[in-house]
Design goal:
By secondary structure, the chain is an alpha/beta fold. It contains three helices and 13 strands.
Length: 187
């Protein structure tokens, strides 16, 4: 029987999210100047010519220490959204500003358990959420207070209590419906 470890998600602000399990962590959409920690995989929003070791910044498929990462390029590769599979859980982190996604890009993502979405384009959000159909939805505050409030409304998360961390495990995901988690930034 395969056992999966708990993954703890914390929101760092913007579109930056930290996934931590055991001794390994993945920081998604790290800000410029971010200092990489030991055993950490860093996923950057925009391509870099010579990224550091264990840093991904380009579209493509990667596998680092059992963590699968798929980078999906936007605007001719100028920005990158990511699908990350860790401990059997499939996460998607959409880049900001939120782009229109083609059917082939959505299909390329595959089945997503946890979807993190920016709040800067609430009008485009509902179609993307419906197309991806995640088990857990996490709206990120990237568009200011007014757009974030509208995004929470679109997601059905108005009045939902914000938490500092979200723990997820392969067997703990909802089998029907969708959970919505509101995370507060931790710096």
């Amino acid at each position: 029987m395969m056992r999966f470890a708990m993954i703890t998600m914390t929101y760092q602000g913007g579109t930056t999210v930290l996934l931590k399990t055991g001794k390994q962590s993945v920081i998604v959409h790290a800000e410029n100047g971010y200092v990489q920690k030991e055993n950490e995989i860093v996923l950057l929003e925009a391509p870099e010519e010579k990224p550091a070791l264990r840093t991904i910044s380009w579209p493509g498929e990667y596998d680092i220490d059992g963590v699968s990462v798929c980078g999906i390029g936007h605007d001719e590769g100028a920005s990158v959204s990511y699908m990350v599979e860790i401990e059997g859980v499939h996460f998607a982190f959409l880049d900001s500003p939120l782009k229109d996604w083609s059917d082939s890009q959505i299909e390329f993502l595959g089945d997503i358990d946890v979807l993190c979405v920016p709040s800067d384009n609430p009008k485009a959000l509902q179609k993307i959420i419906d197309d991806i159909d995640p088990r857990v939805l996490i709206p990120l505050n990237t568009g200011g207070a007014e757009k974030y409030a509208e995004t929470l409304k679109v997601c059905g998360a108005q009045g939902k209590e914000a938490v500092h961390a979200f723990d997820v495990k392969k067997g703990s995901l909802p089998t029907e419906g969708r959970d919505i988690v509101v995370l507060t930034p931790q710096k």
